[in-house]
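Cross-posted from the bioinformatics board.
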Amino acid sequence: MTPPIRGPVSPLATSRLAVRPLGLDQVELTGGFWARWQRQNREVTTPHALSWLERDGSVANLRSLAKVGSSVPHQGMWFSDSDVHKVLEALSWDLGRAPSAYLSGSVSELAEVLRAAQQEDGYLNSYVQAGHDVRWDNLVMSHELYCIGHLIQAGVAHARATGTDELLDIARRAADCVVRDFAELRRKDTDGHPVIEMALVELYRQTGSRPYLELAQQLIDVRGHRVLDPKGHFDSTYYQDAVPVREQSTVVGHAVRALYLLCGVVDVYTETGERALLDSALRQWESLLATKMYLNGAVGSRFDGESFGDEYELPPDLVYGETCATIASVMLSWRLLLATGQSRFADHIERALHNLFAASTSVERDAFFYNNPAQRRTARPAAPTQTRPQRAEAPGTRPHWFQCACCPPNIMRTVASLGGYVATCADDGIQIHQYLPAVINAPAGSLTMATDYPLDGTVELTVTSSTSDTPWTLALRIPDWCRGATVTVNGDAASASPGERGYLELARPWQEGDRITLTLPMPPRLTTPHPAVDALRGTVAIERGPVVYCLESPDQADGVDLNHVEILVDEPLAEEPRPDLLGQPVIVVTAAGFARDDSAWAGSGWATLGEQPPPTGRPVRLTAIPYHLWANRGPSVMRIFIPTRHT
Amino acid sequence: MTPPIRGPVSPLATSRLAVRPLGLDQVELTGGFWARWQRQNREVTTPHALSWLERDGSVANLRSLAKVGSSVPHQGMWFSDSDVHKVLEALSWDLGRAPSAYLSGSVSELAEVLRAAQQEDGYLNSYVQAGHDVRWDNLVMSHELYCIGHLIQAGVAHARATGTDELLDIARRAADCVVRDFAELRRKDTDGHPVIEMALVELYRQTGSRPYLELAQQLIDVRGHRVLDPKGHFDSTYYQDAVPVREQSTVVGHAVRALYLLCGVVDVYTETGERALLDSALRQWESLLATKMYLNGAVGSRFDGESFGDEYELPPDLVYGETCATIASVMLSWRLLLATGQSRFADHIERALHNLFAASTSVERDAFFYNNPAQRRTARPAAPTQTRPQRAEAPGTRPHWFQCACCPPNIMRTVASLGGYVATCADDGIQIHQYLPAVINAPAGSLTMATDYPLDGTVELTVTSSTSDTPWTLALRIPDWCRGATVTVNGDAASASPGERGYLELARPWQEGDRITLTLPMPPRLTTPHPAVDALRGTVAIERGPVVYCLESPDQADGVDLNHVEILVDEPLAEEPRPDLLGQPVIVVTAAGFARDDSAWAGSGWATLGEQPPPTGRPVRLTAIPYHLWANRGPSVMRIFIPTRHT
């Protein structure tokens, strides 16, 4: 058996992969936006999160289980264990990136709490063990397998990052308890919230023990036959339990649940080769991208049930757009990229990371959006710093923590493991999916990547070693947004036409010192929505490279109300570099605009066609910043989509 | 003291009223759409509601309180008492319309239950009395004053309809308990859900006892100073407790609460003359109509908190549009109409009744929308007939009852008391606000009104008696949607120009047999939204007279997908009478349309401007029906707002 690769997704059955992942030890981020975030993730977000886990009772819930006769009531959400497990996973990946006594110590301390809390037979759930529910009795709501799923992911991450079993042992005991209880006796049961499926596959990959894979398959097979008894507000669709996954045509119900499930579905396909599973995931992903995804990578438009809406139901003002859902879309896209080698999945990852994901977190990296607005008509009060709002509340700025704190640790684990999404390898070479300053060590050779991307589109790759004198292929993603890409090798122009998978393929006997310069032109552009997106008709968005822009009130001239502006789409956009906007270099985009004077409409929101007041107003210059930077300068008004006007 | 008028709003201080209400005994609906609904309300909806109140435990909750030592746990929502009270109010108004042994018997039976449940000191709340909460301990959530408010409204309605105190006595004992507990000892407390304010004013009007009015004033004064301690999801704005009502500029927070509160605010103004209260209500109403109301009369766009959105936040696909909120907007508009005599308030009542309100109920009148979609992209399964969905679930057709069943009895009481909204009187004559077949008996004289309105715009009024030989004024509302109204008196044309209040005023010494013919042309027309309504940009709606139309899938040609159609706005609309559509005569409107073929977009919901596929498609004829008839023919796709296309 090949030793597992030290990253989040490490298939054993690599023969079915189009491209293979590299480990976190094989890709190092060396500078720029994302490396800075990784540093902040360790220095700012990690202590922030650990302190909130103590403040909000999540650790106390587990700690009290160790005390005999303790009867402290459970605090917070009934699935608060998962926050602890997800933070542990984040810390583990970060440990794999670079050692840290602080991180190791924090992991050990929490592992000790988990060990003491875990029952003799491996079961672990602080809410149930505190007597608030009965084990496996309320799976539709209880999140018991969900919490254990996150524990497994933490255990696997820690083992891969450190090579030790400190957390994995705990996770494995919990997983063994689930296998014992479910593989035979509860063949018709599953959890209301998927995640354990992909966790079990990864545990199989880590340990080689097939019962984990078999249980993952079983949990996927049973779902969709209305095995969960819906309680309260939500129906079987919400739980992805109305239609078996192999028959499902589009993503439905709770967005995070749907996408976590599909991650497990692709993972099982990868190990078993059941093509119907891959086909379903591809079909659902395609439907998602074509009809249910916002330009900023938001998925799941409805507040009601945190769920996907109907096709083309993408209103910017009432979008839910949960951070976890976009992260889940990245996780799914990565698995599909490994399975197919197609650039469209890396394109989505790029869109998601540079926009909604980056916007989810404050520039200080200690505050977070749970749901991500795409339009803010009225400036709202700043988020409180010392209390935890409910998840769907929408203050003007990012809250520091949440009653349901699933998103912040999800962001943390993604940032810590980001190196895993940059490049892959195959027998014929190396594929580069994301552009950022990095060192990449793959079987075929090693590379350094230097770039200011996405500030500009020049990417310099240098071969630092090559393990073979025979030709191998360096594949560079040509982003779907890019027109006119060019490439040179050691100064000589080469063909920049992408192959059928969407990658420019450079095949030659690479040697140390070879230099590849990829140039991706990224003039600012206007993007128009599909004509069936009713809520965005007659608007465009500004994009530049992979970055979605927005208009935010602090950047506009006095007296410009963003609720009453239009963009002159026939006039050119202009770029304006700002060396330091919110602590980073930024290219601002400006556009010719029109400040509409709607005062003649006073009194009614409706007019008979032909009787409406003629449009009046004045020309203005509109200033757009990258969407991910919004809401860092106090309460503000913001919009991504701008009504159009022709000159 | 002048005896109160036998209708829902009966001011004592009539000197401040621009126009005075007529009693339900003074206006009789004699035919057409609304009289038919009144009959169905009695014959179908009433037994349906009474049976559900038994099935869902609302009556049982109260009944069990009478049993000493009973410990049946409370069933349903903690404010289920209010459903019983509201049904009692509906039955009472209906009794006032015409006697019925069945209705009297039902009221008496329920009154007996209430009497037996009521505590010695008048307190009545089945949830608290069953031990699930402590009296007045949790006012932000408990709805104790809300429930008692509805009990008071039922008691007043019953007294006015029947002249007896059978229910009023119970209501008064509860009100006295509230006065005792709040007027002195709890001067800083109020209920999370307003309604008791207007109920107390009406009880004052019914009894002449000033402490009720004073407590209403006190509850209005205290609110807005963050006296409620918000729990969980919602903040002070949700409860209208963030800003004192006299300072509030626009409707905010939970829509029903905001509008119920404003009803009480106008009621207190009417009795006390404090102009700041009226000004606030006018200001908020104007803001509502100009920026936060849908064309169909829906108010409160957000699912999250059942609340008003920001200005111009009116997406059709994610609208909440609670039936109770639109009813509350009718109640508020009626109070403002009495205070000002201005037609714009009657215009809104007409819009609300003919559209959202009528759409809220199935043509069989035994099923209801809680939240009212303005667009349905995907046909959803039919509503269950034997179970009660959660309120915000949106099945394809109307559910028969709800876990939170506030809307159906609200609809019932409105239908039963609809005569009260038709006409008013003043010292100088009679004002007609709504056009429907009716007999009107006012102090100045009596009229019959014959019309097929809104099928056509001809209204025939005949004076059947006049109490004076001196001239008095018959004022006829010229609807805001109407262009080119004409009028004849005994066959002679008269001026149809409306006065400054929006009414055509005919002043003369009226005599028995005088005939007035008002003609309100109502060709179908296209209506365009305010340019700041982002979600409706580039669309129009079809209207005809007061009726908003929609496209529903059963009426379209095969293969026409309403998610991909456009309307050719330069082509004329056509009318097509249908003698029997869903059991009633209807004018269908057809329009030249275009079925867009969006297949070239497959794969992505976004395109760089200039690169999007050229629009292709084929001409189609679109068929529109009155919006209020949608969802009566099984699951369907529907839209009110249609993307525009120029020929």
